[in-house]
Specification:
This protein has four helices and 18 strands. 14% of the residues lie in helices and 42% in strands.
Length: 256
């Protein structure tokens, strides 16, 4: 039996979103300030730069977590490596090496609470059922998910142009139906959602943060020829082709 006080009922902490086992909390003001950083804290608050934290209710689902993201737990909580054998370890290590994600993501199960490290990034909760049971994530966005979801490395269909465009060759794919928690440099309110029906989306820059696993993702010349690409001033673009949807930030991550 446990009781947590001055957390969920704290007037300075607001629940801003929830999905499945995940609840997103947002600190309305940073109260842990000193005179030396009080001005910065004031303007951060005015510009929506706030601490956010994810609480996972393990009684609703077992959670797979990005390595190092746990801050504290209470109640019946057990952590495992999620490794089911030598073959599984090799597969996860290989996937981690090509996607840039941590090779081993711990899994937490039980009936207690798991609270993640606070972050100034934006927390986005995603339901994979709304993506046809398969979603691909841009590098570095994964924070946590329901452990029943499967993770896999999704390869680009044209390796040479991906290298030329400065993009990675693989992305992290999430397959199954359940909740996923993303750590994004862009708030959900600014994300542009584009739905495709046997059509094509071309993006000049690394602005897509998630797209349906049913889409064919390539890096191609913006024009049909090298001369046409040079004349347009765009060069190589990210291309999403087929039926599905894309979440796109208004600016690239480098400017976000």
């Amino acid at each position: 039996m446990y009781q947590v006080s001055n957390f969920f009922q704290n007037e300075n902490i607001k629940t801003v979103d929830s999905l499945g086992p995940f609840t997103v909390l947002e600190y309305q003001k940073d109260l842990s300030v000193m005179p030396s950083n009080a001005m910065a804290a004031y303007y951060c608050n005015e510009m929506n730069v706030r601490k956010r934290q994810v609480v996972c209710d393990l009684s609703k689902a077992q959670i797979t977590l990005q390595a190092g993201a746990m801050q504290w737990t209470v109640g019946d909580v057990n952590a495992t490596t999620g490794i089911k054998g030598v073959g599984d370890l090799f597969g996860k290590a290989l996937r981690g090496s090509v996607t840039g994600e941590s090779a081993i993501k711990p899994e937490y199960k039980g009936t207690g609470l798991l609270v993640l490290e606070p972050t100034y990034k934006y927390i986005i909760l995603l339901n994979t059922e709304e993506w046809g049971g398969s979603v691909v994530l841009d590098d570095g966005l994964f924070l946590a998910c329901d452990s029943k979801l499967k993770q896999k490395a999704v390869a680009r269909s044209n390796f040479s142009s991906a290298v030329a465009g400065g993009e990675g060759l693989f992305n992290l794919g999430i397959v199954g139906n359940g909740a996923v928690c993303l750590e994004s440099p862009c708030p959900k309110e600014e994300l542009i959602e584009i739905s495709l029906q046997d059509d094509v989306l071309k993006v000049d820059g690394n602005m897509a943060i998630a797209w349906s696993g049913s889409l064919n993702f390539t890096v191609e010349r913006s024009g049909k020829s090298l001369i046409g690409s040079a004349a347009s001033g765009e060069g190589l673009v990210n291309v999403y082709r087929g039926t599905g949807k894309v979440w796109m930030a208004p600016v690239t991550k480098g400017l976000a």
